[in-house]
Amino acid sequence: MECPKCYGEMGTVLNEETKVEQCQNCYGLYFDQLTQELLPGLFGKEEIDSGSDEAGSAYDELVYVDCPKCDKIMDQRKLEDPLSIRFIRFECCPTCNATFLDAGELRQYLSAEYLEEFKSLLPEK
Ligand SMILES: [Zn+2]
Ligand SMILES: [Zn+2]
């Protein structure tokens, strides 16, 4: 599969209830589906997010991302950063619940400061 954001080559980094692929170019993570129900399956798996924060922020501004499964533009979900005044964003497909996070975002969102807010932005099931 191609990275929906930079068209780099993707490789599988987690193959459980939620299948996760990582881009070898921008290190973004693609989840074939991510919901509130599936989120606990990622606890303790933060190491799959091996890209640096710098690698992620380089792609933060690209706004339109097509879902690789549905070919539709993915929704932008915004989350208020509790530690600064800016927003942090991620892409979620409203049709199939596919989700794309830039490098470093999974580690950030699974931390105590962000977890509840991140969860509230995911589809329930
Ligand atoms: Zn990429
Ligand atoms: Zn989709």
Question: How would you explain this protein's 3D organization?
Answer:
- By secondary structure, the protein is an alpha+beta fold.
- The protein has one domain.
- The chain has 3 helices and 6 strands.
- It has a 6-stranded antiparallel beta sheet with strand order 1-2-3-6-5-4, with no helix packed on it.
- Strand 1 and strand 2 form a beta hairpin.
- The two termini are 24 Å apart.
- It binds zinc ion (2 copies).
Rg over CA atoms, rounded to whole Å, is: 13 Å
Count of separate DSSP helical elements: 3
Strands side by side in the biggest sheet: 1-2-3-6-5-4
| Percent helix range | 10-25%
Bound molecules: zinc ion
Secondary-structure element pattern, one letter each: EEEHEEEHH
| Spatial gap, N to C terminus | 24 Å
Structural category: alpha+beta
Domain tally:
1
Instruction: Please count the beta strands (DSSP E, at least 2 residues each).
Output: 6
In short:
The chain has 125 residues and is α+β, with helices and mostly antiparallel strands.
What secondary-structure arrangement, pairings included, does this model have?
Elements: E1 10-15, E2 19-23, E3 29-31, H1 53-57, E4 75-80, E5 87-92, E6 99-101, H2 105-109, H3 115-120
The structure holds zinc ion (ZN) (2 copies).
